[in-house]
Design brief:
alpha+beta; Alpha-Beta Plaits; four-stranded mixed β-sheet; elongated; transmembrane helix; Asp23/Gls24 family envelope stress response protein; transmembrane; membrane
Length: about 250
């Protein structure tokens, strides 16, 4: 009886390869981002609202990193963004030996413990800066919804209803609603109510014409350089401003 030959298993002589999960990269990037002065964490129970938010894509050894951060106000956005890029690049190079193909940083939220009046003062134009012309200020002001938008939606709904009736008449064998209405209009003769109906139709057309050309009403007023406040809240801002000024003069917190 022949003894079967024993074939030794091949011995691997090559080196192994370490695979890094993207979750590890995200943790490293988050730690690097939070180490930059001016960046603050924001934790919420709502999915997608936690900051910093890190998305990693691209090639494995040259990933592309997209980062959304929350910054503490006041903030110099350019310095914070460049600091985050430098910190993330250094962290990935030191920990994983990777050099990202691109690091995109975006500030999506500002965290501030200040009153609205203080925010307006911070962004107000200096005294030596030329004032914005009145026409430009009016042009940039937030405005209410146009009246023509409302009338356009109502007309679109009316046409949609007519289209639904036309589809109903086309797919059913019952009495046609549109045909009945057209026959009734064809049999109408001159009656006393035609004149009031014509006047109402003319007035409706005039109203629609005015709504189409009427300018939108400004809903906000300027309180600083690029800062607009709803008209109903202007008094609240002025009260906050006077209170903060009084606190700064007396040194006491009222």
């Amino acid at each position: 009886m022949a003894t079967p030959a024993v074939v030794p298993a091949p011995v691997r002589t090559g080196r192994g390869r370490t695979m890094i999960n993207d979750r590890v990269r995200q943790r490293l990037v988050e730690r690097a981002v939070l180490s930059v002065p001016g960046v603050v964490p924001r934790r919420t129970i709502v999915p997608g609202r936690t900051l910093p938010a890190v998305v990693i894509g691209g090639q494995r050894h040259e990933p592309r990193v997209n980062i959304e951060i929350a910054a503490g106000w006041p903030v110099v956005s350019g310095e914070v963004i460049e600091g985050v890029r430098a910190a993330v690049g250094a962290e990935l190079a030191t920990a994983l030996g990777e050099h990202p193909a691109g690091i995109d940083v975006r500030i999506t939220r500002l965290e501030a413990d200040r009153s609205p009046a203080q925010v307006a003062d911070a962004y107000a134009a200096p005294d030596d800066m030329p004032a914005v012309p009145g026409n430009a200020s009016r042009r940039l002001a937030p405005r209410s919804i146009a009246a023509s938008t409302v009338t356009g939606v109502l007309i679109a709904l009316a046409l949609t209803a007519v289209g639904a009736v036309a589809i109903r008449d086309a797919v059913t064998s019952d009495t046609e609603w549109i045909g009945t209405a057209l026959c009734w209009l064809g049999d109408v003769h001159r009656q006393w109510w035609l004149w009031p109906a014509a006047v109402v139709a003319a007035l409706a057309g005039l109203v629609l014409l005015v709504a189409a050309v009427k300018p939108r009403r400004r809903t906000h007023v300027p309180v600083g350089d690029g800062v607009w406040v709803p008209r109903g809240l202007v008094n609240d801002w002025q009260v906050d401003d006077s209170a903060s000024t009084t606190t700064g003069l007396t040194g006491e917190d009222s």
